[in-house]
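Technical note accompanying the year-one report. For the benefit of new consortium partners, we illustrate the data format agreed upon in the data management plan: each record pairs a sequence with a C-alpha cell string. No post-processing was applied to the example shown here.
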Amino acid sequence: MTVNPVTAPSTNHSSGETAKPVLSVEGLTTSFLVDGSWKSVVRDVSFEVMPGETVAIVGESGSGKSVTSLSVMRLLAKATSRIEGNVILNGKNLLSRSDRQMRDIRGNDVAMIFQEPMTSLNPIFTIGRQISEALTCHRAMTPAEARAETIRLLEKVRIPNAAARFDEYPHQFSGGMRQRVMIAMALASRPKLLIADEPTTALDVTIQGQILDLIKVLQEEEGMAVLFITHDMGVVAEISDRTIVMYRGEAVESGLTADIFHRGKHPYTRALLSAVPRLGSMKGQHWPLRFPIVDIQTGETTVPAPVADTVDRRKTPILEVRNLTTRFDIRSGLFSRKTGAVHAVENVSFDLFQGETLSLVGESGCGKSTTGRSITRLVQPNSGEVILDGTNVLSLDQIALRTMRKSIQMIFQDPFASLNPRMSVGATIAEPFIVHRLGTQKQAREKAVDLLERVGLSADMFSRYPHEFSGGQRQRIAIARALSLDPKVIVADESVSALDVSIKAQVVNLLLDLQQDFNLSFLFISHDMAVVERVSHRVAVMYLGEIVEIGPRAAVFDNPQHAYTKTLMNAVPVPDPARRAIKRNTVISELKSPVRPVGYKVPQRDYVEVTKGHFVQR
C-alpha cells in the first residue's frame, strides 16, 4: 500500500518562493539477503521533510521505521542489503553517491542520534575529544578552536560545568547527559537535517522531557529539519508537525499530526492511539482499568470492564516492610578500605494487601528495583523487617528461604536475559514446579501447558525456544513461569517498560486479569507514570532511596504534594498535538548521588498525613 506524502511547504516570505524540501524520499524499498534470496522489509515509502519541520515516523518494533532512517543515511551493510528508490538531500541523490562522498555528507549535511548513546560513544576517549574530532574532520579547525567550539556546544545542550567536563569519559556521565553529548556531536557541523532514532526511549521521564525541550529549542535556533523515529505516540504529539505511521514495512497513513490523532483512519493508527496510556484518564475511576483493544484487521474497539476491587484492608497485609535499609559499601585504596556507601534503600516502610497493586515509582537510581530485590532477598538488606504472610524473610536460612520463594516471585524487565536460551519455554515454566517437588513430571507439564494458555499463548509452543518469540511473548512466558508456584506476591520490576505500546497494553491487561483470577498482590516497579496510574490501587514515590510520598492512587495523582512527585507528573508526554508548542521548562538537573561518606548520619524524616492514607515527607 502506497501513501502519498503529505507536505506542508514553507514559504520564503522575502521572495515569495516556496521552500524546497531538505529531504525527499521517493519509493524507498529496502531488502535484506536472507537464505540466498532478497526479502523486502521496507516497501515503497515516500515522504518529504521541509526546512525547520519535524516529521515523525511512528510504529512498533519490526515496522521498518529504523531501517528507513538507516537507509537514508546509507548505514546498512552493502553485502546484505539493497536500497531502491530515491533519497534526495539538498538536491543530491544519496543512493548514487560514493562511500567517500557519503562520509563527507554524514555529519556535514545530515546527522543522526541513536537510541543508546553508550554504544555510539567510544569508552576509551574523553567526551571532549570525540566531539572535537568531528569538528576537526568536517570543519578544518585547529585543536584550540575545536576545544572552544566543543565547550560551546556542550553548554548549548545544557551540560553543567562544560569546560570542566571536557576531559571526562562517557562512563562518568548519566544516561541523560550522554544523550545530550550525542546531540552536541550531531550539531557540531550544523547539519540541515537531524535524524533522531528513538533518542528518548531508554531515558527516565524527566530526562526525556528535557531532551524533547532541548531538541525543540535547538531546532528553532538552528533552523534544522528533524526526522524523528519513535513508537511513543505521546512524544509524537509533542514534537512533530507531520506524522507517518508504519506497519509491517509500509507507510499505512500519513498527514498532519493533529489529523492523525483526531481523525486517524487506518485501524493500526487507531490501535496505537488507543493503547497510549494518558495521564489523568483515570479521574473518577476507583479501581485499576484495562486498556481498550482495537482489532487491527477490522478497526473494532473492545472496552474491557473495570477491575473489581477485592482488596480487604481490614485483614493483615500479605507483605509488611518495616524500616528496610540496603546499602552497598564502596572500597578503594591499596587495602580496599571502606570509604563510603551507596544508600540505595533507606528506612523504607509500607504494607501490601492481598489482591492489591502497590506501585513504586521514580527515576533510575532512586532505589525502587533494589527495594524489590531486597524484599525477595536477591540482595541482602542491612536492616529492617520484611514480613511475608507472617514470616520474617530476613531471618530465614537458605533452606527456609527457598521454601519462602514459592510465595513471592519476580518478573524482570528483560525477559530474554531472564530466560535460559537452551531450555524450551515449556521446560522453563515447569522447572520451578519440579525443583520445589510440587508434583510429577507429567503434572509439571500439564501445569506449564495450562499456564501458557492462561497467558495468551498456545500449548503447541511448549517445545519452542525463547529466540523464536517476540519480546511481548517472551514477557508472557516470564509471567507464566512466575505463576508456576502459585505465588501470593509478584514483584514486577519494569516488566512492561521495554515493550511496544500495543504489546504493553496487552501485557498490562493480562496482569490485571491474572490478579483477579488468582487474587495476586503486585509490587509494580516502574518509571512510567501513565501506566502506573492505570494499574495501581496505591502509589509510593521514591527519591534517593526514600519514599517521599505514598497513598491511594487517586490521592497521589489528583493531589500530588511533594515537589519531586509534581516533577514526575509534569514530565510525562501527553498524546495531544495541541501541546506541541509547549515547553515544560524542566530544570536541567540530574538525580543527586546516593553515595554517602563513612560516618554519615541519616536525618530523621517526618511524614504528614494529607488525607486518609496519603502521607508526604516533610
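Partners are asked to follow this layout when depositing records. Confidence is low (pLDDT under 50) at residues 1-6, 9-16.
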